[in-house]
Amino acid sequence: MSYATPLEARIAKKVTKAITDYNLIEDGDRIMVGLSGGKDSWALMQVLDVLQKRAPIRFSMIAVTVDSGYRGYRHDLISRTCEGRGWEYRIQHTGIGETIEDILEASETPCSLCARLRRGVLYRIAKEVGATKIALGHHMDDFVETLLLNLFFQGALKAMPARLVSDNGEHVVIRPLVYTSEADARDYAKASQLPIIGCCCPVCGDLSLQRQRIKRLIAELEVEHPEVKNSMLRALTNVAGRHLLDKRLNPLPELREAALAGGAVPLPLRRGR
Ligand code: SF4
């Protein structure tokens, strides 16, 4: 069975590589796709649907939309599209938008609080629908932007994992678009005639947000260095811990000796393992 277009073939290849590299989907999985109606989540749903029909393993899918309660959010378009394509679908209406206004602290951005609240809802629904994995539409651009956001503004050298087990061990979050660019995801969602809708929240598209600034910075760099995003993504798979300053990765000699002697292991060493 061939792919519908070269773009679909390219994305399917990248997603298959991500699935293989990080063991994202296994035989018998029930994948719950977080479907906001944005280009990325549509692209993810579409490519997983294509791969499901071709994969040598069997897995099922259900799309789940968390409605934050913003006026004008066209969740009706999402449900109609899923029904039309025969995709199992569920929508959860919430008051997350109002909650953000009530509890947002100065130290937190609306998007990080929003992501945390939505994640909580997704975890609950995952249990209800019997999902074994939760698939999110973060793509390559999200990974490198998050890396720079943490580096520039949070004093941390981290991005996000392609596969994450929740703190309580009950959920596995996967990001199959890790090797797929935002531009490809957008083009694929459009070419697949999926209705791309906005989240309708007041901060969406706010150009003063740090993420928007990072996007501009990367776009500027790409003019001179088109491979800059690929290089950053490769860097995430090629970490030289001994060339960083984190003592958990590169302990001082006395801490290392204590650990090797089998004595009480100092906290920094324990936390780093
Ligand atoms: S733009 Fe709005 S809906 Fe999207 S993550 Fe940020 S706060 Fe949430």
Q: Can you list the strand order of the major beta sheet? A: 3-2-1-4-6-5
Query: On the 0-100 scale, what is the average pLDDT?
Result: 92
Bound molecules: iron/sulfur cluster
Secondary-structure element series: HEHEHEHHEHEEHHHHH
CATH topology of the largest domain: Rossmann fold
CATH class of the largest domain: Alpha Beta
Q: What would you report as the Rg, rounded to the nearest angstrom?
A: 20 Å
Total separate domains: 2
Shape verdict: globular
Number of strands: 6
List keywords for this structure.
alpha/beta; six-stranded mixed beta sheet; 11 helices; Rossmann fold; single chain; 2 domains; binds iron/sulfur cluster
Secondary-structure map:
Blueprint: H1 6-22, E1 30-34, H2 39-54, E2 60-67, H3 75-85, E3 89-93, H4 96-103, H5 110-129, E4 133-135, H6 140-154, E5 163-165, E6 172-174, H7 182-191, H8 210-224, H9 228-235, H10 253-260, H11 267-271
Parallel strand pairs: 1-2, 1-4, 2-3, 4-6
Antiparallel strand pairs: 5-6
Helix pairs in contact: 1-2, 2-7, 4-5, 6-8, 6-9
The chain binds iron/sulfur cluster.
